[in-house]
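Action item from last week, closing it out:
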Amino acid sequence: MTTATPPRPPRATTISAATPTPPADATTADAAAAGPRRVFDWRLRFAALALIWGFSFLLIKVGTHGFAPFQVTFGRLFFGTAVLAVAMVVRRERLPRSLRTWGHLTVAAFLLNALPFSLFAYSELTIPSTLAGICNATSPLWGMALSLVALSEDRPTRRRVAGLGLGFLGVLTVLGAWQGFSGLDPAGTAMALLASLSYPIGWIYIRRTLAGSSSSHLSLTGAQLFLATLQLAVVTPLFTTVPASFPVGPLLAVVVLGALGTGLAILLQYGIVAEVGPTTGQMVTYFIPVIATAAGVTLLGEQLSWNTPVGALIVLVGAALTQSRSRTPRPSRTPRVSRRTAARQP
């Protein structure tokens, strides 16, 4: 559910299904592969994506009322994979054939799907969905900090470093550091922050290992979600028992979380990035915590103190600064050359 811009591979990369985030290499070929002209304007699809991902944290909370966190995550991945499988059949996409690609996708599935989805589900056992949504917005901050260490070509600027510091100041504001973090569960908050940290680690791994893949975004992401589903299929029976009942509310929440919050959201994100580019696509990041907070307060009755929205705003401003790029300096002007002179130049 995060959309912080992933590192820029030269060709294909997978899309985080959380959270999602737009690949930063939308090329002309990708735009052509996105299909014919869309029925709905990209702005409507952008708004739908923000709503879907913003409500995902509420759906996780409702799902955990009836099922164990691992079961919520497994159901989410299962229904998300089913949606992408249908999309791949309709578009006649093929799964990757290289064993090397499948090996790297296994690691990516753990870092971008299985681990963060499970951590968010466990965290919401003890923290409100509003706090989980705000913690998710810290992914750009973690990504910027890690890229300075892991990606030699990603040079820091004063603005981006300032954004990093400002963002983490916002985190401390959300947590109420001056009160000794009173009223918050440390373990649940730590799990939500670790989930947000897992996303940029996965993106950096993809950049280093799958940058040259010839497979499409949809093919790679479909394979990635399938592998994450298999991982949860192995882990879930080891730590949970078969549910004694299947309450309607939590069951519907898990189905919607997977089919819409994971499967459809990835397709919407893919189309938006292919149509208007990653810069516009990544702006959805800044709406997710706002919608998550509004949903948690109005529909779940979660309490909201003044420092939560103020800190969230500081986090979003810091995240925006970390995503800014320095402008390319304009080339110096050269003296005008007459047509007659220019014609003689080699």
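Closing note: The chain is about 65% helix and 0% strand.
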